[in-house]
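Minutes, project huddle
Topic: does the predicted pose make sense with ribose-5-phosphate bound?
PN asked that the exact inputs be recorded in the minutes so nobody has to dig through chat later. Recorded below.
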Amino acid sequence: MSEIKIIAGPSSQVLSKRVSDLTGWSMADVEYRKFPDGESYLRIREEVERAVIIQSTRRDEDIIVLLQLLDACEDAEKHVIIPYFGYARQDKRFRSGEPISSRVIASLIDADSIAVINIHSTEVLGYFSSPIRELDASEELGKYVKTMELQNPVIISPDYGAIELAKKISEVAGCDHGAMKKERFGDEDVRISADDIEVKGRDVVIVDDIISTGGTIREAISILRKKGAKRIAVGCIHPVLAGDSLSKIYRSGAYEVFATDTIETPVSVISVSRVIASHLREIL
Ligand code: R5P
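Predicted holo structure (tokens), as shared on screen:
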């Protein structure tokens, strides 16, 4: 069998190196640059017969680069890891005249296998025509929470959508969990209630799959503070962190924000590389 090469997409360079270290598969030599008009250019500067392409699609141009990488590997066996698959929240036609954006993108990605990590909506998996698997990084978050010095902690999801995540993290960390109820009125306008959650004097870790504008988390922090929570930390799988959302979250009272490296940010202190490496070892 020919050698497997890791192709590190520009949005997942650090994570790719971590996967390379764990699997022993070396990183291919790839040149990335932009043409003067802003178009993306890339070239894989070696022969690759079996490729593992790792590229999160946080920004629109990340999608273009992923498609370019797939085309550049046309004759190779291709395994794609998309740690963060953007557009997954656009999983249906909410109003007439809208596209199902996640379906548009999924239909363009053609490979021997695809894996994503904790996709926002599992419905999106059905939009891919190549074999796809969702990997779960919640245990990695649980292990991290276990190392935090927390007093009488409770893991809370800001809506019912993330309750499974909170539950899994709490099981690994060995503590309680609960879920708040969320209603969304606009991009940053959410109302959250937490009638049956008791947090007085307890350390709280709010967990969500994605933090984007931070509107959800800020509202959750405000309610939990009013209910007498002691210290509040915030964790997520995918730190989209649009604009100045991170500083807004800190200002609203979180003493720590932590996330995984599905998107490489300053708070990406937990790596999903083990989850990816064990999946790859299983299929290759
Ligand atoms: C939505 O259901 C997701 O799980 C997150 O709660 C949401 O994407 C967070 O968005 P934002 O940070 O903009 O409130």
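Observations noted during the meeting:
- Helices lie at 13-23, 60-72, 101-106, 138-147, 163-173, 215-226, 245-251, 273-283.
- Residues 201 and 260 are 28 Å apart (CA to CA).
No decisions taken; revisit at the next huddle.
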